[in-house]
Specification:
The complex is a heterotrimer of chains A (about 250), B (about 290) and C (about 210). With about 290 residues, chain B is α/β, with parallel strands linked by helices. Chain B contains 10 helices and 14 strands. In chain B, the strands form 3 sheets. In chain B, strands 6-7-8-3-9-10 form a 6-stranded mixed β-sheet, sandwiched between helices. In chain B, strands 2-1-4-5 form a 4-stranded antiparallel β-sheet. A 4-stranded antiparallel β-sheet of chain B has the order 12-13-11-14. Chain B starts with a strand and ends in a 5-residue tail after the last helix. Chain C contains 9 helices and no strands. Classes of the chains: A mainly alpha (about 250), B alpha/beta (about 290), C mainly alpha (about 210).
Chain lengths: ~250, ~290, ~210
Amino acid sequence: MRKLLSVIYYEYVMQLKRIATWGVLAASVVITLLDGFPSEKNLARIEFLLQPSYFIYRSLSFGALIATFGLMFLLSNRMAIDHKTGMKQLIMASPITKLQYIFGKLLGGFIYTYTVFSLFLALNTLVFYVSVPIDIALTDCLVPFSKALIINVLPVSIFISFISVALPAIVDVRLFYVLASVLFILNAASPDSADKMPFYLITSGDLKKLIWQHPKFPYINTDGIQANLLFLIGCGLISAVPLFLRRKLWRND
Amino acid sequence: MYNIELRNISKCYKNGVVALDNISFNVKNGVFGLLGHNGAGKTTLLKALVTVLKPDSGSIKVCGYDLKSQGDEVRKRIGYLPQELSMYPSLSVFDFVNYMAQIKGVYDKNQVNIALQQVEMLEFSKRKIGQLSGGMKRRVGIAQALVGNPEILVLDEPTSGLDPEERVRFRGILSRFAKDDKTIILSTHIIEDVYQVCEELAVLRKGRLFYAGASADLINHVEGKIKVIKIDNENQLFDIQKQAVVISTTYASKGLTVRIVDKNMNFPGAESVSATLEDAYVYCMGGKNDA
Amino acid sequence: MKQIKSELMILGINPILILAFLVVVFTLIAIFAGEMLNLSLIGFEVIFPFIAAIFIGEWGKIKADDNYDMIAAQGKSLISWVLYRSVTVFATVTFFVVLCMAIVFHIRSEIPLQEMILIYLSPAFMLSTLTVLCNLIFTHEHVSTLVCGMIWLLAMLSKSMLRYPMTEYIYLFIRYSGDRNGIWLINKSVIIAICAVIWTGICLVYGKKNR
């Protein structure tokens, strides 16, 4: 167990130490605030911007997609790099099991994604709370923020971290980029709507509607939420399976 | 009792290359050298020894444990430095060695400091791996192998690319480690390293074991046969090559000095010199199976 | 010609297989996707230009190439190497894209073929140019693709910026966003002109020095 925790910890630390991590975080926060900062002009342009839950809801459709796209790239060579640098041989020669190594990589990536994504939301919410021109109770911000951490950030982090760590270890990382770009463009091209949303939306699917709903459309698409959740968690978990099955990945015990 | 016992190890890669062909030898305490050309099978043999690669046939016992059935016990006792190791550039020296220590199940940070002290890297422990020189990186690589005080150290060409000062420092580290009844397997191209620290060695040639035994015995194979001849031109050199194995040729302003193994005593008048390990090795590699 | 042949050999078979795979996928989408989707616009103005940039970033590596120091130290001209490499990758991708366009046109006839080529070229050229610029700056693998990907995604997400005056002249995906004022040809020309300026800068800076 301690070996697994060590792999997770160092995987997490190594990723957080990358300048690119903070670049992606900064870029996505700036982009979100450019769109939804509660300035006079934006408040006039965006109807519900005074509501903290709407601000978080909106952040999830815009900057969050940029953040997840960046994190996906940063996670995509975590296993390939061990092969390239000779670290895999070294690790395989140590008394550590395949399960410990793979789970360590996957969970380290997951905790990293969850941290960065949470920081992204926290920073945006903090800026919103400080800058909004009316008095808002802190709990009004904390409640939707906490909801987002559980309802949205958790499944999205599983999806992004697991597919980004696992798939490039199985297929050419560049094919993975091409496939991911198609998925992200489908996400970016999908307009926001009160109707049932496509299941494949990463940060702006029906799950997001549990945080804020348009007052004119106060119903919940339960099957849409389930499909969205199933897609995110299911794809994440399924993409990890080939790693465990692939014999070439590890020494023959 | 031997610390490592290899019996009839063979490995053939999918492309048909026979990397190891029926290799058998034993290794006892001390520093054991593994010599051979590029592609002779040294790295394959070491990978098999550290359980990273499975041989097609044969058996290996390390510290009495069978590699096939007791791989975990073997891994607990081995420190390994692969031929090519870039490590994680974003981690500090301490963090990297600590990471490897924890993977090995060693959670005492003092052990990390001791390993860094052994390779004289303690003062650089906070420096990032990416900011180290090539020699320092190698020392960190050795530190991660030393951490946890393994019984057996497997080093794959650890001195390649190091300057002479670093190599001397490295030999000192090995000698200190070997003092405590430990076993070190050192694969290298550099005969000088083997000569300085190894009591025993094995020579691989094209996947086959060419020699295994004491360094002194290998030298004895050519003792009394090493001669130095001074000649005037290269035509004479070609004649010599037909009758003896040429170890080295030195060009001077007036002619050439040729160092040879005069196995059949074709040059009785030539000056005899004492044999070195390099003479014996080059003779083995250059030539005849009956050496 | 010899250098292009060498670059093609360095490129290898993997990118060709991936491109062929994409053509097959697009063909299937063209056959089975409903009429609500304008595949020609989203495919050739948005998706394939970024795929071209991914290929330039991943297979047209410059500073991230393991042999960069050797080539920079010994090559006659760094800029010609950069040009040969980037153009080879771009041309290879474009060949498959045009093939895909022909198939999509044959199946769906949404937009004339020559219009599709025009729609594709300017965003592809812009994103590829930015990737080459990143390739010349960053020594780490995948960073160029990451930077360009974020720009691409941001451009896609910032359609609302078109409300500001003049932005429609430089917006990358003008046809996909609706082209309310019918200025797409001007937009494409402006973007290509910006690319030409960037390339002139690259040639001036890297043409003089070898590293």
